[in-house]
Amino acid sequence: MATPLHFVSSKVYPRLTGGxxxxxxxxxxxxxxxxxxxxxxxxWDGQQATRFDFDSMRLYLFGLTLLPQDFIYxxxxxxxxxxxxxxxxxxxxxxxxxFSCPQTVYTEIMIWIERWxxxxxxxxxxxxxxxxxxxxxxxxxxxxxxxxxxxxWTGLTLVGYFTPMRELAANxxxxxxxxxxxxxxxSYGGFTWLLAGVLREQVCKHMCPYARFQGAMFDRxxxxxxxxxxxxxxxxxxxxxxxxxxxxxxxxxxxxxxGACVDCGLCVQVCPTGIDIREGLQYECIGCAACIDxxxxxxxxxxxxxxxxxxxxxxxxEQQQPLPSLRQRPRALVYSGLLxxxxxxxxxxxxxxxxxxxxxxxxxxxxxRESNDGYIENVYNVRIMNxxxxxxxxxxxxxxxxxVRVEAPPLxxxxxxxxSFNVALVADPxxxxxxxxxxxxxxxxxxxxxxxxxxxxxxxxP
Length: 462
Prior knowledge:
Layout: H1 20-38, E1 43-44, E2 47-48, E3 50-53, E4 58-61, E5 64-66, H2 71-92, H3 95-99, H4 102-118, H5 121-129, H6 134-159, H7 165-173, H8 179-199, H9 201-207, H10 209-213, E6 224-227, H11 229-232, H12 266-269, H13 290-301, E7 309-312, H14 314-319, H15 330-352, E8 356-362, E9 369-370, E10 376-386, E11 392-398, E12 404-407, E13 411-413, E14 417-427, E15 435-445, E16 452-461
Antiparallel strand pairs: 1-2, 3-4, 4-5, 6-7, 8-10, 9-10, 10-14, 11-13, 11-15, 12-14, 15-16
């Protein structure tokens, strides 16, 4: 009878460490959260700097208004994100996971909360193993309450990217919130609490798809957190006075050569996923470099050179060579070139983008008609969408002005709105024969004449 597959895991209590990489991780947590929580409160030209309005289907981005017709820029952003993921993973492995991934960032914050309320890892481990009592209930309850409050804050902030944040805050202060806003805030906050506060490293080890397919993007020159087994093995305890002796001459009590690793186990204790980096490359490693920081501290204390655990590549570790340059990695150059090309094209398109849209449709309810002076009129419905914040005036001009003229004054459209107008195109039957004619119409922004759109209209002559 086959043994059923089952999932067994124990809670990880990562030990706090210092060092240069820990400083970077803390800096990334602070920077990413300042951006996430601060952007919805930032105003730009009198409105929220970053917001997506579902009602009008508009994306407001630092004074730039994007419409559904601008979907190509979203597609370009997704392509850039995908290529960036391929490039970054090929170059630096899972550094994104270890320093900037929201799961890692929020897990770090939850661990800070837990450590602040319940104490260091040993205390938390003993408390979890102990029977329930008043002190345990109080500390556990306080931890979960703070985690839930922070998670709810993240959910409300996410809603603030869709509902104006200041309006949302005012409604919360008044004690009421919309159904959809409440639903999204509770859903996102609940998932934040579940994934970062409860599951934590299990998400990275068993649920994250990135951990499963990253191997397809790795090569032997990908930067990884690696243990130098040639220098570290055989591992074992050592006295500090032996630290300055070269490895080949460094012997233990049984006169056998001893490596640099003192087998203290601190690299395992600080790992947020609970793995032993000395066992080689493992998909659970998120590249946070906590083991590098703590190992460097041990090397300093034992008088040895740092770098027993370090960022390196498989090829460099095996050959004891320096890290390769980008010029030696054609795939990196291809990815970089594609990224630069897409970013450049998108930036050029945004720079040349005209901030208004025009639709010209012939009014089918009104046939061509003859005016009192013998000219033929065709009536059109002109729909102008002004995506700028302020009101703008637009003028319609016919490029074949000698044959057709426009009978319409400047058309004024309020900021961030759509207005329709009835406009007549007039032609001399003596100059245009009967039938259907294509007329090119220029629409000029009178407040900024450099902004011009070209549209075509069908003119019918009897």
